[in-house]
Amino acid sequence: MSLLNSDLSKTWFDKASGTTLYLVSCDEKTILPIYGNTRCRDDGYLEFLEDANQEFVLDLPSGKNRASYLYEGDADSFRLLVQDPASVAIEVSSKDPNVDGIYIAGGNINSILKEPKYMTFFEKLKPHYELAEELGVTMSIENHKNSMLSSPDSIRYFYELNPSKNVGIAFAPHHLYDAIGDIPALIKEGGNGQIPFIYFQEHHPSSKKKMSEQEQLKQLPGFGILDYVPILRALRDIKFSGLAEIFGHPVPRGIPMLGSAAEITKAINTSRAYLTECLKKS
Questions:
Q1: Which of helix, strand or coil describes residue 139?
Q2: What is d(CA 173, CA 189) in angstroms, rounded to the nearest whole number?
Q3: Are 217 and 204 in contact (CB under 8 A)?
Q4: Helical residues (DSSP H) of 136-260, grouped into ranges
Q5: What pLDDT is recorded for position 258?
Q6: Residue among 123, 183, 119 at smallest CA distance from 151
Q7: What is the pTM of this model?
Q8: Of 101, 105, 130, 258, which cross-links 263 as Cys (Cβ 3.0–4.6 Å)?
């Protein structure tokens, strides 16, 4: 992102939100923020100063501050009063890898956090979810790596902005392998109304490359290492009434995971028995 020859004098770059300033260009004509927490390096890139690494809460003229659900520990944050900034810059990409760059907006911080990508998505989806509402059909959109719904925060954005009871998430724990601890909370936050479908699949390399049948089975509940008790407990807590699928991806796609229908049925029933035991423990 280039900020060459830009006037940033009244822009607050919010490091506490995860902003890295990675490859943000500047030059001698770039007017740096008056708040003294950034500098333009000799190699032409913007960076934070060493003393800018504290957790700050930015108070805006509107009375709003950074949305607390983006970060933990805001209640214990240091408070830095920035008087009437013309704009605020937050790098959403550090929280959602599918949102690129640094977003600069003036006034209300919500204009940054309720990122236009999500609003645009629902606007484009409107004729489809209106038809779904008319027909009594539910549309489920999978959270998937390298997509709009790829992180806990992006799923929370979806929950907050979702305008239709006939749209929900096809909840995929295997695409949250780097945030396993967040899975139960995300289920509870979404509730039964936002999660009409869930995959029972564990992340495993065998979904991407050819491996033995024994390794492929580790995608299924009870064969891998993922503990389903917290997941099923969360589903019980929200009184989940949707659909669940014991699921796995063979490689190459389109072939059976095992050699016969009988073997596949046996494996699925093994997973069902494991999930039943997990339900008892939940």
A1: strand
A2: 15
A3: no
A4: 152-161, 183-194, 213-216, 229-237
A5: 92
A6: 183
A7: 0.61
A8: 258
